[in-house]
Amino acid sequence: MGEAVMGDTLRQRKGRLPIQSTPFFGRGQTITQVRRLLSEARLVTLTGVGGVGKTRLALEVAQASARAFPDGVWFVDLAAVEDPALVAHTVAMGVDLRYRQDTNARAALAEFLAPKRLLLVLDNCEHVVDACADLLRPVLAAAPETRVLATSREPLAIGEECVWPVAPLTMPGESGSHVTASARSFEATALFEERAAAVSHGFVINEDNEEAIVQLCRKLDGLPLAIELAAVRMRVLSVGQILARLDDPYVLLTRGNRQVPPRHSTLRAAVDWSYSLCSEQEQVLWARLSVFRGDFDLEAAEAVVSGDGLGPREIFDGIEKLLDQSILIRQPDSPDGRGAARYRMLETIRQYGQERLYACDGAPSVLRRRHRDYFLALAENASEAWFGPEQLLWFRRSRQEQANVWAAFDFCLTQPGEARAGLRLATALSFAWVASGSYREGRYWLERALNSADDPGSEEQARALGALAYLMIAQGELGAVESVAAQIRKLALTAGDDRARAYADILLESCKYLLGMEENAQEERHPLPVGEAPAADMGFAFLQQYAQAIALLASDEGLDSAVSLLEECNDRCAAAGEEWQRSWALKILAVARWRQDPGSPEELSLIEESTGIAVQFSDVLSVAWNCAVAAWILVESDAETATRLIGASEALWRPLGAHLIGAPHLIEWHAHCRQHARERLGDRRYEACYEAGTRLDYNDAHDLIVHRRTPRPPGAGSADGALTRREGEVAAKVAEGMSNRQIAASLVISQRTVETHVENILRKLDFTTRTQIAVWMADPSS
């Protein structure tokens, strides 16, 4: 349950569809029919056996339909979600929705989608079909313009659903001769030719192999996955040899489950056959790699699945072989600066590997523990390095591994004796949850870990409770922190744990500062810890410093002390190469400077720098905070922009918790700014600007803070704003997420020409990013 996958920043196009690395074949009429069905039905479910191509068809339909949905097309893969309780939050995460801790996820999603016109693609629903149905009923009732395209091996069985069974690829009939040209006109044979040519250079369908290819595709019932698994064998076998091996009755009749439908048996036979053609080491590697959820890299594979005949060399060579055989799929490289290649299995292939793994007595629990240990160590390494120059890299890596982290949590929370490890994992990840505003995710796992612990020990439980309280403070639940601090203090007294007692004291004191209840804020300065303090302790130290600074800002006499305190925090962070805590020092320092000298240029520059850091961490709460402070600073000189920022701040913060974390004097200053803006603009203009601000997403809010402008309609920047025909084609490709190189290949023009067109489009539309082009293409009238 996390709000951002690693590598994502706040600046992303409206909508999210994965880029496909291979061309799509056929199904043109089906795409048209499903698109037409989507215009009539609220929910369309693509059903069919694994390997029939449901996911790929859904992606093609979604891509072709993008222009019809101005609020975007959003893809959510549920394959890695094993706990039905996580379905609603995973979907909310997938559409970039953040919502309050005390809000039901289904209700929050229904409210969020109610005014939107978007397409939601839910992939791999079959193992959580009931949870999907429970989620979609209120969503479809509340959001009349939202459409849902689901893929599942069985229908979701709700009233609004229209089921489309996905048929196998078209193939030549049983009778009649097949000239080469006609064979290529069928989807199954054309797919085989393309995939075979990729591994056997120069391969084409001809008179010599045509009949064998047709028989092969018939034997595989036109299932795309089965055809691709067979085609990859063209590296070492002829078509005739592949066909002969598929005719082996041992492969076809003894490896599959005779109780499943025929097409499922056919796919099973194809996967069985691919498995049988692997060496023993490759078979073992396939099974062991199925322990990973989502994708993984070579380092993780070597750490988790090695041993018993598989060393680093065997794992490296085996991954290469499994890639060659299409058992593994190469993913985009890691975005954390390491540039590590990543791999994944299709869910059908992974499930097959799981079957093989569980056939080995004892192997699954051993591998799951190794898997948990690896990702626990990764999380703790990231936590230890948090206060330092590699902070952003570790943050991105921790978010990249979200699916595997969830699997590690599942192991900790379902296996006897693993509760302490679960608490350690949740505590280690708390930095990433706080930094990205993923409060719901953090509290879900922290609370589950705390509730599952039988006898966790004071250190683990105290640290987890401290992380939970930190999240609560960020959400403005200041009054509720006292009970958590009391639990920590009780643990500390029982075990004589001075560190835990310090946590409790800091939490209580910070809440008093923020609530304006601490009268001695100025006299009781707490210096920052020096030396090699743990990163978690540094987080608590900075929380205390910032809370004290906010308390000092309440009076004129405390302003100089607040500035000194915040400059000390900023300098300490800068010296260590730490950025996220520094972004908070900068934003609170901007408030202090504004209180000292309203209207000075330094105030806005501090907010802009803070916002630039925040977007790297997808820290939407930080952006919302900065919107409020920028409004206070600008209200005298630019009341319209200030009012838009007020609207953006309140709308962005609403799902996160109490506005301005419930600090009374911050709320008072904001109310004063709101009233002053209304007086300057008049009620009608104020309401219009405020409403415009509430419609901004956090990308637009960032632009408004940094550039003082909101998205503008096409042509607003110049008299010649109309795009030429070729510029329109390029803009459409940009909106599809293509790179300049991909656009050049698609339109058969040079990459330099594409670059020129993109520059012209940006200039004519007065845009600065490709994201803005994509948003405008989705709805040019906006």
Helix content: 55-70%
Distance between the termini: 32 Å
Name given to the CATH architecture of the domain at 28-165: 3-Layer(aba) Sandwich
CATH class of the domain at 28-165: Alpha Beta
Question: For this entry, what is the oligomeric state of its chains?
Answer: single chain
Strand count, sense and barrel status of the largest sheet are:
5 strands, parallel
Give the CATH superfamily of the domain at 28-165.
P-loop containing nucleotide triphosphate hydrolases
Helical region count?
37
What is the third-level CATH name, the topology of the domain at 28-165?
Rossmann fold
Poorly predicted runs of 5 or more residues: 1-13, 249-261, 711-721
Radius of gyration (CA) equals: 29 Å
User: Which geometry do the CA atoms define?
Assistant: globular
Describe the structure.
With 782 residues, this protein is mainly alpha-helical. Among the domains are: 28-165, P-loop containing nucleotide triphosphate hydrolases (Rossmann fold), CATH 3.40.50.300; 180-277, no CATH class; 579-707; 725-778, Arc Repressor Mutant, subunit A. It contains 37 helices and 8 strands. The longest helix has 22 residues, at 363-384. The chain is globular.
Topology summary:
Layout: H1 28-40, E1 43-47, H2 54-65, E2 73-77, H3 87-94, H4 105-113, E3 119-123, H5 129-142, E4 147-152, E5 161-165, H6 180-184, H7 187-199, H8 210-219, H9 224-231, H10 239-246, H11 249-254, H12 262-277, H13 280-289, E6 296-297, H14 298-305, H15 312-324, E7 329-331, E8 342-344, H16 347-358, H17 363-384, H18 391-400, H19 402-414, H20 419-435, H21 439-452, H22 458-474, H23 481-495, H24 498-515, H25 535-552, H26 559-576, H27 580-596, H28 601-616, H29 620-634, H30 639-653, H31 664-681, H32 683-694, H33 698-707, H34 725-735, H35 740-747, H36 751-765, H37 770-778
Parallel strand pairs: 1-4, 1-5, 2-3, 3-4
Antiparallel strand pairs: 6-8, 7-8
Helix pairs in contact: 1-2, 3-4, 4-5, 7-9, 8-10, 9-12, 13-15, 13-16, 14-15, 14-17, 17-18, 17-19, 17-20, 19-20, 20-21, 20-22, 21-22, 22-23, 22-24, 23-24, 24-25, 25-26, 25-27, 26-27, 27-28, 27-29, 28-29, 29-30, 29-33, 30-31, 30-32, 30-33, 31-32, 34-36, 34-37, 35-36
